[in-house]
Amino acid sequence: MPYLSLAQTPTDELMMSKGDICFLFNFEYGQFDQYWEGETLRKNGTIAKVQRRTSMVMAAYGITKRLNAYVGLPYVSTNSTTPNGGKFAGTSGIQDLTIGLKYEVIRRKGANGEWMGFGSVTYSTPVSNYLSDYQPYSLGIGAPQITWRGVVEYEWNAGFYLRGNGGYIWKGYTEVEREYYYNDGSYFTSWMDVPSAWTYEAVVGKWFMNKSLKAEVSYNSSRSTSGDDIRAYNSPQPTNRVDMDRIGIFAQYFFQKPKGLGLVASYSRVIQGRNAPEMAAFSAGITYQFGLFSPKN
Amino acid sequence: MLVSMIRCNMDLATELEFKSYEFSGIDQDAGTWKPILIASGSAIAVDKPAAANSDQFLAEVAGVKSRIAAMTSDEKKNVEHWTNNAVLRWNEVALGLIAKYNLIPGPNVDESYTLPNPANPAGPPAFPFAHPPYASRALAYLSVAQYDGLISAWHYKFQFQRPAPYEVDSDIPHSYITNNLPSYPSEGAVLATVSRKILTAMFPLEADYLLELEQQHLGSLIMAGENVPSDLEAGQKIGEEIATIALARAANDGMKNAQAPKAISDSLRAAAFERFGWQWENLESPVRPVGLTPLFGKVKMWSVANVEDTRPEVPPALGSELLEKDIKILKDYAKNVTQERRRIANFWQDGLGTYTPPGHWNDIAGEFILKYRFNSIRTARVFAYLNMALMDGGISCWDTKYYYYYPRPIQLINNFETITGTPNFPSYTSGHSVFSAAAAEVLSYIFPEEGNKFREWAEEAAMSRVYGGIHWTFDATVGADQGRDVAQYTIDIAIKDGADN
Q1: What residues are paired with A92 via a beta bridge?
Q2: Which of residues 322-341 of B touch A (CB under 8 A)?
Q3: Does the pLDDT of residue B40 top 50, yes or no?
Q4: pLDDT at A13
Q5: CATH (residue range B50-251)
Q6: CB distance from B205 to chain A under 8 Å?
Q7: Does residue A4 register a pLDDT over 70?
Q8: CATH for B259-495?
Q9: Is residue B3 pLDDT above 50, yes or no?
C-alpha cells in the first residue's frame, strides 16, 4: 500500500528568497488496523495492527525568489504489533530520494487579498534495495515517480486563505524478486507496472500572531488510473489500484527568536479508500532557515 | 540506483513468447509409445477418414480455403496465439487458473472458517482453493490425458496418412512452419477438447471461459491451413474419450477425502504426539482448526504402489543437538537477511495467489521444451512425467507431514519472525524441496545436458524455505532426497515407454 508523503513543501504556497536554504527534520508515525480489500474495509489477524515510522530530512533552496528547489530523503521502518497471526518480520531502511522544483507562476495583489499560482515538478526514485513486493511492510512502491502539480491560493488580507492543488503522479515499473505474478491474468516477468494517479487537495487555513503561526485543515484524494484489486484475504501488491480520501490538520509556527527556526505538526486520517490502509498518522518536525527569514509571501 | 532508467513503457509478458517453429523431429512411431491410462494408442477407436482424393474430402478442403480467405483479424490473432505447439498454451491456461484460484479462504466475521465446496463452487469461498497439492493434481491429470490423447492421435495419423489442406491445395496458405505431420486426426483438436474438459472439472467456475478457448483453438486449426473439419471431429472424439477416462480415475483417487474433518486431523496429531512427543500447531489468528489436506498422502499415486515406501526417517527430537543447531541457523538467517538469501526466498516462494511450486516447474519446463524444439507429443510427454512425479512427490510429502506432524520454526523459537508466510501444514518435510527435487530429476532425465542447472535450482528452491524462516534445514535436505526417490519411480516408467530409444 503506497503512502503519500506528508512533506508539504512542493504543494504549499511558501516560497523562499534567493539564496535561502531551509532544512526540515520530520518524524511521522502512522498506523492502521483495517484496510480496504477492494472496496471492503476489513481487519486481518495475520497482520494485526501495522505501524510505520518515517524520519525525513528535507531541504529547500531559493534559486530565485520565484524558483525553489527541493531535496528529501526518508528513512522508514514498519512492523506489525504482537500478537499477530502472520509472524512476519517488519522492515526498515532508506526509501526514495526526492528532488523537485517549484515555480511561482503568478502573484497578484488586489484590494482584499492576493492571488498566487505555482507549478511544481518532483522526481523520486528508490535509493536502497528495499522490496516493494513485501506488502504491507514495504518501505515504498519501489518505482521512479514524476509528479506535476499546480497550486492556486487566494489569501485575504485578514489572513484567511484557500488553496487548491491538483497533480498527476506518473509511477514507473518496480522490479520484484519473482518472475511470475497474477494481475487479472498471468504475468511472466519480474517487473510490475505501478498504476499512476491523480491527486487533488483542498485546504482552508489562516495566519495568526502576525504571521508567526498558520493552521489549516485539508481534504485530499488520490485516484489510481489503473490497477487490480487486492484479492480475497491475500497480500496487496504494487499493481493494485490504490484510491484514498484523507482529511488532515496542519500547523506551522515560525519563531521570532531564534530567527529562522520553525515547527510543523500534522495529523491525518484516511477516511475512504480502495486497496488502501485506513491509516492515521501524526507528524512533527523542526524547520531551520538560513539567512534572511521572511515569512511574508 | 539513482541513475536507474525511467522506463515509460515496458512490454510485460503475459505468455511464453514464441512463434510456430520447426520441430526437432515428428516422431512417426509415437503411436506405438506406451500411454499412461490406456493400453495403447489404438485403444480409442477412430473411424477411417474419407480418402484424400474423395469428393467429400476435397469439398472440405474447398470450404477451408474460403474460410481462410475471409479470415478476420481476431481469427488471425488466434492463429498466432495457439501456434503449432498448443500443449504449451494449454499448460499456461492451467497455470493462470491455478494462480487465480490459489487463494486461502479467510475467516468469517465470527472467526470460523468455511471450506471451498465442490458442490457449491461459487461459494464463497470459491472452489477450488488451488494450493500446491491441488495444483499438482490438476496439472497431472491435464498432462497425462493430453499425452495419452496425442499417442492415440499419432497412431491414427500415421496409419491413415491423410494430408493437410495446405498440402492438397497449394493456394491454401499455411500459417505455421511446415513439419509434415499427417492431418487426421487433428492433434490440436485432441488438445483443445481434452484440456477444456479436464480443466473444467478442476475449475468448474471457468466452464464458459474454457469453452470459449476450446472454440478459439479449434477455429485456429482451420484458419492456419492445418486441418479440415473432419480432422477436428476425430481429434475431439479422442479428446472427449481420454478426458472421460482420466476424470474417472480422478473421481476415485481419494482427493475428495483429502481435506479431512477435524476429528481425523486431531487423531493424526494425537498419534504423532503419542509416538514422538511433539505436535504441529497452526498459529494463525483466528486459528485454523484443520491443516491443509491432511489426507492428501492417501491419494492414489501414479508410479508408486505404496506411499510408505517413500516416507523418510523420523526428524530430530525436541531438545536434540541437531534441532538446537538448526534453531541457531534459523535465528542467524532471520537476524542477517542478506540480499541473496532474500532474493532466493522470494524467487522460489510461489505462495498464495501464484501458480505454486508445481506451476513454477511447469513454467521452467516450457523454456527448455522450446530450446530443444520439441514437437507437441514430446512436449506432452515432458509435462506428463513431470506432473506425475510432482503429484507423487506431493502425496509422499503430505504423507510424511501428517505422519510426523512436526512443528514449524515459529512454534519452537520464541518471538521468531519470518520473511515468508508460514503455511497451514506441518513442517517435515518441505513441500518445495520434494516438488523441486522431483521435477529436477524428471527434467534432467529428459534434458540431460541441463541436469546440473535443474539440480542447482532445486537445491536453491529447497533452501529458500529455510531462508524464509519457515522450514528447518533437515526439512529441506531430507525433502530433496525424498523428491529424488519418488521421481525415480516415474522415470523408470518413462524409460520404458518407447519414446526414449
Answers
A1: A77
A2: 334, 337, 339
A3: yes
A4: 77
A5: 1.10.606.20
A6: no
A7: no
A8: 1.10.606.20
A9: no
The Cα of B101 is separated from the nearest Cα of chain A by a number of Å equal to: 10
Contact A45 B105 (CB under 8 A): no
Instruction: Please tell me the class of the A19-289 domain.
Output: mainly beta
Provide ipTM, 2 decimals: 0.96
Q: At what angle do helices B321-335 and B473-495 cross, to 10 degrees?
A: 100
Question: In B, residues 436-495, which contact A (CB 8 Å cutoff)?
Answer: 469
Q: What is the mean pLDDT of residues B434-449?
A: 98
C-beta separation of B310 from B486 below 8 A: yes
A126 and chain B in contact, CB less than 8 A: yes
Q: What are phi and psi of B393, to 5 degrees?
A: -60, -45
SS3 per residue for B15-68: CCCCCCCCCCCCCCCHHHCCCCCCCCCCCCCCCCCCCCCCHHHHHHHHHHHHHH
| Chain-chain contact of A86 with B421 (C-beta, under 8 angstroms) | yes
Per-domain boundaries in chain B: 50-251, 259-495
The residues, any chain, with a CB within 8 Å of residue B327's CB and separated by 6 or more, are: B409, B412, B413
**CA pseudo-torsion sign B350, B355, B361, B365:** negative
Interface contact A47, partner B, CB < 8 A = no
The cell for B49 is 477418414
DSSP line for B115-154: ---TTSTTSSSPSP---HHHHHHHHHHHHHHHHHHHHHHH
The strand ranges marked E within chain A are 21-32, 35-37, 40-42, 50-64, 67-80, 91-94, 96-109, 113-126, 145-156, 160-171, 173-175, 181-182, 186-187, 191-193, 197-208, 213-224, 243-254, 261-274, 280-289
Name chain B contacts of A88, Cβ cutoff 8 Å: 417-419, 421
Using a pLDDT cut of 90, give the percent of chain A over it: 89
pLDDT for B421: 97
Tell me which residue of A136, A52, A92, A1 sits closest to B337, measured CA to CA: A92
Q: Judge whether B50-251 and B259-495 match in fold.
A: yes
pLDDT at A45 over 80: yes
Residues of B in contact with A86 (CB under 8 A): 284, 421-422
pLDDT of residue A259: 86
Q: What is the pLDDT of residue A10?
A: 65
Instruction: Kindly state the helix (H) or strand (E) to which residue B436 belongs, with its residue range.
Output: helix B431-446
Tell me: the pLDDT tens digits for B327-363? 999 999 999 999 999 999 999 999 999 999 999 999 9
Task: Name the DSSP class of A98.
Answer: E
Mind listing the pLDDT tens digit for each residue in A130-143?
999 999 999 999 99
Instruction: Say whether residue A33 is in contact with chain B using an 8 A CB cutoff.
Output: no
Query: Which chain A residues are Cβ-neighbours of B359 within 8 angstroms?
Result: 180
Query: Quick check: A234 contacting B, CB < 8 Å?
Result: yes
Angstrom CA distances, A144 to A11, A123, A196, B10, B218, stand at 19, 7, 11, 14, 44
B291: left (phi over 0), alpha (psi -120 to 50) or beta: beta
pLDDT at A3 over 80: no
Q: Can you give the pTM of this predicted structure?
A: 0.96
Find, in chain A, the residue whose alpha carbon is nearest to that of B286.
Answer: A45
> Which chain A residues are Cβ-neighbours of B6 within 8 angstroms?
144, 146, 172
Q: CB of A77 within 8 Å of any CB in chain B?
A: no
A231/B99 Cβ within 8 A: no
**Beta strands A243-254; A261-274: pairing state:** antiparallel
Length of chain A: 297
> Which candidate, A221, A91, A83, A199, places its Cα nearest to that of A151?
A199
Pair B434, B458: CB distance under 8 Å = no
- For cell 506432524, what's the residue? B405
Choose among A89, A144, A185: nearest Cβ to B4: A144
Are A186 and B107 an interchain contact pair (Cβ–Cβ within 8 Å)? no
